[in-house]
Design goal:
Blueprint lengths: L14 E5 L8 E5 L4 E5 L19 E9 L2 E2 L2 E7 L3 E9 L3 E10 L2 E10 L5 E9 L3 E3 H4 L7 E4 L10 E4 L12 E8 L4 E9 L7 H5 L3 H16 L4 E3 L3 H16 L1 E3 L5 E3 L11 H14 L2 H12 L20 H17 L2 H22 L20 E2 L11 E2 L2 H20 L3 H25 L1 E2 L5 E2 L29 H10 L21 H14 L3 H5 L2 H6 L10 E2 L8 E2 L6 H14 E4 L2 E4 L13 E9 L2 E11 L2 E9 L6 E5 L7 E9 L1 E6 L2 E6 L3 E10 L1
Helix pairs in contact: 4-15, 5-6, 5-7, 5-15, 6-7, 7-8, 7-9, 8-9, 8-10, 9-10, 12-15
Length: 709
């Protein structure tokens, strides 16, 4: 297997994976390191939280697992997801004398740790897995040495008959080192193997121990894994020259369902993280909805957005007032992005009409709000003329030392709201409402463009860039590139777009990512490189620059395909912030991998627009099967069968065909001429390494000869 994913720039251990069933409220945090595995959880869930409040559900129970052989500690060797994509953990301890492996899987009423051990020596060996809880607990065998129930019970924190952990399928341990410990140990002959189960019931009492011990835990594990496998069967199939990139896509898609759960209103919604950000968030929730629509989960996408879309005041205000995202004007833009994409995938006009009423109500309210900033200062227009009034920044945006201010990125996204409102009115054939939306949109665009021009920061070399606050250099640069894409406030090659990208990318880390995009001075907000910058480059038709952030983004993650929110740039960075398993990066990874393979631009469908060039070396093939698009489903393969031959087969399924398809033949060599040898089902022409196809059939094939100029 050839891959360029090596996780070389992963931040410091522990590396986190949350395991659960899809959309489940019961979640378990697993923190892996070279010393062992920590199991952590809280019994609370979001059904008991104030709806939309940032009221984190922090872990309050902890078990630390280690392993040893004949009294010598075994080092943690490796950790990965099951099948390298499912939210279930495989962890191993190993040295020259012994192997101990854990497979941790969530099932309907428990988290199950299948533990396997092997003696690699030529003599008998005692191999032990030791768990010690940090809480005030006692092992039933410690309490009653005559008991055969190897279970941990609370002394403080819950009723004393609750089984927090239970061992099944292992002999009674010879000794417990302390009352808070749980032990699995075997005396294993040379080359011998053993297996047992450590079970964390979501709720069980000691009286039911016999019933729990009698269950077939291997079958339960298979059922837990099947729940994820069955869910992922609905997704498109990506077969790529680098299979680890495909794994990253499916891991990110899976994590959408890890970070969704029932809220206090009885509905499912998405959280931005697994612990300190485990609260409904409309920003990441909107991005999750886009990922779901792109993968064919339209019902789940719509379901997950219902609560966020419902956060609207009677006066039309739609920014999650009374919730976590209050006063963040750009948040409404994220909602509109999700609505826009959902409609393009489903063509559900009733859905668009419902959402448009919300957009228009917000546009009316915000138009009145913007009049508050149209106040001359000393007879002149201030830089903030006509912008939304003072709001919350977040994302590292600060006005000096103030979290609140008038921020350009939020106003850029606010204009996107008005643009989508106008587009929706036209799409729905609502002429009167379209004229009203046009009035709001044109005024807001005029104001933001004026503020961008006059409030930009001019460098000594004459280039200008978009700051967070007009005329100031304080705070982060998050959202500046969104003026290019998706908001389309600036033309892709506008001088301000040129200067902004140049400024944002002027300082790259050793691992190839831009520094200072978020909260941490000198740090990395890994997701924003791909989320903000790669898409801006795609809008500018700079595909190589867009693709350059894919592998660095993956390699700054952990082997579990998990990313903290922000961190310092060096490999093994110990200074991190936010959740250790944050949502934004895996969402961006899944979205970008999909868009690198298939991306819509109005009536054009791009194929392989930003794939790494080595993926079309001689002998390589890229295959996509049953992928949703705005035009229906698509399956295709692109094969480089020989040094001078390339062929593609495309199958469309849907009522609508794209006006054009652009097949990007991103080969690693330069200076090649592409000559079309045969084309079926479409008119074909070449320009550089792009083949433009005008389809007249659902089945299309094209073969190309590569020659030197």
């Amino acid at each position: 297997m050839k891959t360029q994913v090596d996780f070389k720039y992963a931040f410091a251990e522990p590396h986190r994976l949350c395991i659960c069933l899809p959309d489940a409220s019961r979640k378990c945090l697993l923190d892996a390191s070279k010393t062992g595995l920590t199991v952590a959880w809280t019994d609370a869930d979001l059904t008991g939280n104030p709806l939309g409040a940032l009221a984190p559900l922090m872990a309050c129970w902890w078990l630390d697992l280690s392993a040893d052989a004949d009294g010598s500690a075994l080092p943690g060797k490796a950790w990965k997801r099951v099948e390298n994509r499912i939210p279930a953990l495989e962890y191993t301890w190993e040295n020259e004398s012994a192997f101990v492996g854990i497979k941790a899987v969530a099932v309907k009423d428990a988290d199950v740790f299948s533990i396997s051990a092997k003696n690699k020596t030529s003599s008998s060996s005692r191999i032990r897995v030791l768990g010690i809880m940090r809480n005030h607990v006692s092992n039933q065998i410690w309490i009653d040495p005559g008991s055969n129930i190897n279970a941990l019970l609370p002394t403080i924190g819950d009723t004393s008959d609750r089984m927090l952990f239970l061992v099944a399928g292992a002999p009674k341990p010879s000794k417990l080192p302390k009352r808070e410990s749980i032990v699995i140990e075997w005396d294993i002959r040379p080359g011998g193997k053993r297996k047992a189960y450590l079970v964390r019931p979501h709720f069980a009492i000691l009286d039911d121990a016999k019933k729990w011990l009698s269950r077939n835990w291997e079958n339960e594990i298979e059922k837990g894994l099947d729940a994820w496998k069955d869910l992922l069967k609905k997704a498109p199939e990506f077969s790529l020259p680098d299979p680890v990139v495909a794994d990253a896509y499916y891991a990110g898609l899976s994590d959408v369902f890890v970070m969704r759960e029932e809220q206090s209103n009885g509905r499912i919604a998405h959280s931005p993280g697994t612990e300190c950000y485990r609260s409904l968030g409309s920003g990441e929730g909107s991005l999750a909805a886009v990922v779901l629509d792109q993968a064919g989960y339209a019902k789940e996408s719509e379901e997950g957005m219902r609560t966020s879309l419902g956060f609207q005041e009677k006066n039309g205000r739609w920014d999650d007032l009374r919730r976590w995202g209050h006063d963040m004007w750009g948040l409404v833009g994220f909602k509109c992005l999700a609505v826009y994409q959902h409609y393009l995938f489903t063509r559900d006009r009733k859905y668009l009409a419902r959402c448009f009423r919300r957009m228009l109500a917000h546009a009316r309210w915000s138009h009145k709000e913007r009049q508050k900033t149209k106040i001359p200062y000393k007879g002149e227009k201030p830089l903030t003329w006509g912008l939304m009034p003072r709001g919350m920044g977040d994302c590292g945006l600060m006005d000096g030392n103030d979290l609140y201010g008038i921020f350009l990125p939020h106003n850029i996204w606010h204009c996107y709201v008005l643009k989508i409102a106008l587009w929706s009115a036209k799409e729905l054939g609502l002429k009167k409402e379209a004229a009203e939306a046009e009035k709001y949109c044109s005024d807001a665009l005029q104001c933001i463009l004026d503020s961008l021009e006059r409030g930009s920061i001019k460098e000594a070399n004459g280039t200008r860039w978009i700051p967070g606050v007009p005329g100031k250099t304080c705070g982060s640069r998050w959202g500046a590139a969104n003026a290019i894409y998706p908001c389309g406030i600036l033309e892709p090659h506008h001088p301000l777009a040129d200067g902004t990208l140049k400024y944002l990318e002027k300082d790259l880390s050793r691992g190839g990512l831009p520094i200072n995009l978020g909260w941490m001075p000198g740090g990395l907000w890994v997701s924003i490189a791909t989320d903000n910058l790669s898409y801006a480059h795609l809008a500018r038709e700079e595909e190589d620059k867009a693709e350059q952030y894919l592998y660095p983004t993956l390699n700054h993650g952990t082997p579990l395909f998990s990313w903290c929110e922000e961190r310092m740039p060096e490999p093994g960075a110990s200074q991190v912030s936010g959740d250790r398993q944050h949502a934004w990066t895996p969402l961006t990874v899944s979205r970008f991998i999909r868009d690198a393979l298939i991306m819509e631009d109005k009536d054009i469908l791009h194929i392989c627009r930003a794939t790494p060039r080595w993926w079309l070396e001689p002998g390589q093939e890229i295959r996509v099967n049953n992928a949703p698009t705005h035009f229906g489903r698509i399956s295709f393969s692109i094969q480089r069968s020989a040094q001078d031959e390339l062929s593609a087969k495309i199958q469309l399924k849907g009522k609508r065909k794209p006006g054009q398809m652009i097949l990007h033949c991103r080969i690693p060599e330069t200076g090649k001429t592409f000559v079309i040898m045969e084309s079926k089902g479409a008119e074909a022409c070449t320009a550089g390494d792009k083949i433009t196809l005008t389809p007249h059939s659902n089945s299309i094939s094209v073969s190309v000869k590569l020659s030197d100029n």
